[in-house]
């Protein structure tokens, strides 16, 4: 498609292969997951904001995590859904493509930093409970959130800039449902080996760098829990961090699978499946992971629904 051009000015997203019937099934499935994701995370944000029982660092971070989840999935899923409804490939400008990639990577980086901070929060709550309110005060929590957002958006400026400084002259068809960096690098006529290596090192730095405090925190958490004499005490202590630990396993597992590899230009199907995990599955699971086994949140949710019912009834 680019035989007469030196570089692409727009791209065409190939999306999902298959028949119209398959596209309809995928559209219905992803639309349902996206709707539940947005409504579930909005519900978490609202309840955390209005219920005084949830005014603690853990729920403060959870609220911001839900905001990030909504934004991450909204960066690509609506466009993906629109592509499933349209016949053929979907055009996207170079500017829109770079903006989508930048937002996707920046929000993802901010989420990883926040997840690491949440692990440290659980460590302080379980291993140093007497000083918890002093260490994790409101000032500290606000600064943690600000740093996570600012760091994420600053850290990804160069990787996205370097990606779009390449010359895309092989084709302008991206074998993906979003502007995936690995597939974009495949379209470049330049020698991108050095760029790929730097991007790999940066991915290792942010993912492993945020994973290290998580591992250290949970090592101390498990050690502290095992020292609790009663089984009921152990269960109660573990329940306060089980949701975050589950989310960490899913989140970091997917990111390691997708980004921590020296060769960024992996097979399209590999990237497509991993991206679906990051953009669709993980944000969908977030409301359930953090609420279903949380008695305090369930109680707050019931009271919130009762108040809504009373308002509608009156």
Automatic annotation (TrEMBL):
Residues 40-290 form the G-protein coupled receptors family 1 profile domain. Pfam families: 7tm_4. It comes from the Eukaryota. PROSITE patterns: G_PROTEIN_RECEP_F1_1 (PS00237), G_PROTEIN_RECEP_F1_2 (PS50262). CDD domains: 7tmA_OR6C-like. GO terms for molecular function: G protein-coupled receptor activity; olfactory receptor activity. SUPFAM superfamilies: Family A G protein-coupled receptor-like. One of its GO terms (cellular component) is plasma membrane. InterPro entries: GPCR_Rhodpsn (IPR000276), GPCR_Rhodpsn_7TM (IPR017452), Olfact_rcpt (IPR000725), Olfact_rcpt_6C-like (IPR047132). It is a multi-pass membrane protein. It is found in: Cell membrane. Keywords: Cell membrane, G-protein coupled receptor, Membrane, Olfaction, Receptor, Sensory transduction, Transducer, Transmembrane, Transmembrane helix. The chain crosses the membrane at residues 25-50, 59-81, 101-120, 141-161, 197-221, 242-260, 272-292. Belongs to the G-protein coupled receptor 1 family. Putative odorant or sperm cell receptor. This is Olfactory receptor. The lineage of its organism: Eukaryota, Metazoa, Chordata, Craniata, Vertebrata.
